[in-house]
Amino acid sequence: MESTVCTLCGADRPRLLYRKFDLDISACRACGLVYAGPQRLTREETWARYSSTYFFGEYLPSLGVVDGKVDLATLDGRHKRTLTHIRPYRRSGTLLEIGSGAGLFLKAAERDGWTVTGLEVMTAGVEFARTTLGLDVREVAFEDADLPTAAYDVVALFEVIEHLSDPKDMLRRALTLLRPGGRVAISTPNISSLSHIALGRAWAILSPAEHLSYFNEKTLGALLRGAGYVNVRFDRHYAGDGRFETMLPTHSHAPESRRTKAYTLLVDRLSPWLIRQVQRLGMADGLHCLAERGE
Predict the structure, then answer these.
(1) pTM beyond 0.90
(2) pLDDT tens column, 123-143
(3) Cα atoms in the 13 Å half-sphere on the side-chain side of 205
(4) Is the pLDDT of residue 198 over 60?
């Protein structure tokens, strides 16, 4: 275990929200960031979870990859909206993904015309991306990677920033890798989501052994601006492919509880119009954000 303070504002003023799996989740009284602490697992303990058993038994199946077979057309469709959003910022065509996992987004980006590079610490993920998808993915932590400055049009972090022990420092370094006018693209769970409100402590995203920070638009925007980014924008229409991308009621550590079952029934009965309202209010399960390196 290690001690921590708020990674957004540096304050040591935690207010306990939950105790889960013998670990605490707190909110900063100064800025509102929700984080694992004031005691949390060390990086080595956190990373120990990402074994080949996890990769093949949990990670790939959760993305619809069965027996190592990747449907490229499905990848293109899944990432179409993200690729549409970043395409206007393509100049040299270079894209770096930090925490690229199995390389599924990178492959879709490559098929869309980008020259892609990935960084990943999971050995199984690196091997899969290289051998199955033929990608340039390097087995190295971002802070240890030797990368050129001002070289990338886009730096992507999808479902990664919540795992980082020092997200502000990482974002500051990522800023130096972007060309002027380049964009960082981020997705991360939304602590202000309707799913969190409905499921409470049972919401599966609340997993302090692996998720160290929990953002909403306010705190993620503050983090990005504090790291030097400008023009921070959130896409409140991202989850437009179905209600379960906006609200996933079964993503619960208590799937048989009355609360989970009631929320599942509610989501199942929501009209498309109400689904869109949840998105527009910034209460979907995920945050999707672009921010710019200024000229």
Answers:
(1) yes
(2) 999 999 999 999 999 999 999
(3) 26
(4) yes
